[in-house]
Write a structure and sequence with these properties.
heterodimer, A: alpha+beta, Alpha-Beta Plaits, four-stranded antiparallel β-sheet, two-stranded antiparallel sheet, 23% helix, B: Ammonium transporter fold, globular
């Protein structure tokens, strides 16, 4: 099992969700996050004073998938979230040791 | 000059002015959080630009002597608009200010059709020109002694002047500016429904000034307009909740806020002309076409984002026509009767007034937007739209979380 931790542009959430649904990956967790990589922030002005907002709004989408479909899922996410501009985000892949379904207590590993 | 009348219109002017910030919150709650400041600003900016423009030129074109199509320039820059009560029982200057608050909100109403993608500078240019080229002449037709008032069209507080006018302009603007990215495939949902409810509350409160103030006196007709303004939206709310229940099994909050606005819009042309029980009927009937217009719009490719057409266009037209049905001379002090009270011809007059405003406002809005589009792109870039209009148009964000630690100070 693998955890695919994806940081994407907020307006790409629907596209990524649809791409994963097309692979029959139904579960996901989405979180509003802020951060930056190479992308520079933007300048904000409040009461006449300039500020550099360096941490930009992003969405994090976490999905846990079996090893056999992980690569396919990663490629689907990249394809769905890409605009080609700086700030498209990252995909991190982590190993998952165990997973327990709370309702039934059933364990997968 | 009458002291009581003046006191009430002073109060009413402040009430109607409050409606524009109320509208800002109504609209602001309905958009996504990355566009809320831009949406609020689209209403707020009208208080400045359109308000001052009204005093400079708009008032004169609407209310000074001219042709039956448009007023003249004799009151431009408020020349001859003084503290004496030459037009009625309140100072002319107060009448100018009261009417100015109507112009401000009518221009701001249009923004609901083009939020989340229109360039702010293009929008601002548009509402300034629209206030002069469309609002002022139409006001002159109906209230300034123009051809529709000579024809006998009844519009107590602005069903045609304000709501049909803004609704049609919104329809054309949504069409010319085009739909948002992701419409209708993605869910572009309201980010703050409590704002919507707050906005509806402020609108209803302010609308007592709008309708009861339009009596231009602290008298019986003002009291009648006040009561109809209380009852009609109540009836719309009841019918709307039943329609919601039939359709989805649950009465919705956004639906209730919308219903209140629809009822207020519909009773606006009729407020001082119809009996309180007629207002209940009118408010209830108006819910039907507006509800279905709204459902239909959501299934269409027309991105009138906040349903200005369904609420103000359809609601205003329904109210204007029903004014020609329910108006009763026995209660409105001789202003005129409608179909149910022996004057079926009034319905025809009302339809002519609505059709004339649709044709003129629709045509001129189209021309104005096309002309502005030659000079300023009407839309923001695709990238700016994706980022959000708060950051790209105003350099601000509405909701900066994590206690402001996201920024480094440059100043």
């Amino acid at each position: 099992m693998k955890l695919i931790k994806t940081i994407i542009r907020p307006n790409k959430v629907d596209d990524v969700k649809d791409a994963l649904a097309a692979l029959n990956i139904s579960g996901m967790t989405a979180t509003e996050v802020r951060g930056h990589g190479k992308q520079k922030g933007h300048t904000a002005i409040y009461r006449g004073k300039e500020y550099n907002v360096s941490l930009l709004p992003k969405m994090e989408i976490d999905v846990v998938v079996s090893d056999s479909i992980a690569d396919e899922a990663i490629q689907a996410i990249i394809k769905a979230a890409r605009t080609g501009e700086i700030g498209d985000g990252r995909v991190f892949v982590l190993p998952v040791l165990e997973s327990h379904r709370i309702r039934t207590g059933e364990k997968e590993s | 000059m009458n002291g009581a009348d003046t006191a009430w219109i002073l109060m009413s002017t402040a009430l109607v002015l409050l409606m524009t910030p109320g509208l800002a919150f109504f609209y602001g709650g309905l958009v996504r959080s990355k566009n809320v400041l831009n949406t609020l600003m689209m209403s707020f900016i009208s208080l400045g630009f359109v308000g001052v423009l009204w005093a400079v030129l708009g008032y004169s074109l609407a209310f000074s002597d001219g042709s039956s199509f448009v007023g003249g320039f004799s009151n431009a820059l408020l020349a001859g608009v003084g503290l004496e009560a030459s037009l009625g029982s309140i100072p002319d200057l107060l009448f100018m200010a009261f009417q100015g608050t109507f112009c401000i909100i009518t221009a701001a109403l249009i923004s609901g059709a083009i939020v989340e993608r229109m360039r702010f500078s293009a929008y601002l240019t548009f509402i300034c020109l629209w206030a002069i080229v469309v609002y002022a002449p139409v006001t002159h037709w109906v209230w300034g002694g123009g051809w529709l008032s000579e024809l006998g069209a009844l519009d107590f507080a602005g069903g045609t002047v304000v709501h049909v006018n803004a609704g049609v302009a919104a329809l054309v603007a949504a069409f010319v500016v085009g739909k948002r990215q992701g419409y209708p495939s993605s869910s572009l949902l309201p980010h703050n429904v409590p704002f919507v409810m707050l906005g509806a509350a402020l609108l209803w409160f302010g609308w007592f000034g709008f309708n009861a103030g339009s009596a231009l006196a602290a008298d019986e007709i003002a009291s009648l307009a006040f009561v109809t303004t209380m009852l009609a939206p109540g009836a719309t709310l009841i019918v709307w909740c039943f329609l919601d229940m039939i359709r989805s099994g649950r009465p919705t909050a956004v639906g209730s806020a919308t219903a209140i606005v629809v009822g207020l819009v519909a009773v606006t042309p009729a407020a001082g002309f119809i009996s309180p029980m007629s207002a209940v009927l009118l408010g209830g009937i108006a819910a039907l076409p507006c509800y279905f217009a709204l459902v239909l719009r959501a299934r269409s490719s027309l991105d009138d984002s906040l349903d200005v057409v369904a609420a103000h266009g359809v609601g205003g037209a329904t109210g204007a026509v029903l004014t020609g049905v329910f108006a009763d001379m026995a209660i409105n002090g001789g202003s005129g009767s409608g179909l149910l009270f022996g004057n079926p011809g009034q319905v025809v007059t009302q339809v002519i007034a609505v059709a004339a405003v649709i044709a003129y406002s629709g045509g001129m809005t189209f021309i104005l937007l096309k002309l502005i589009g030659v000079v300023i792109p009407l839309r923001v870039s695709e990238e700016e739209e994706a980022t959000g209009l708060d950051i790209t148009q105003h350099g601000e964000e509405a909701y900066l979380h994590v206690g402001g630690t996201l920024t480094s100070n440059n100043g």
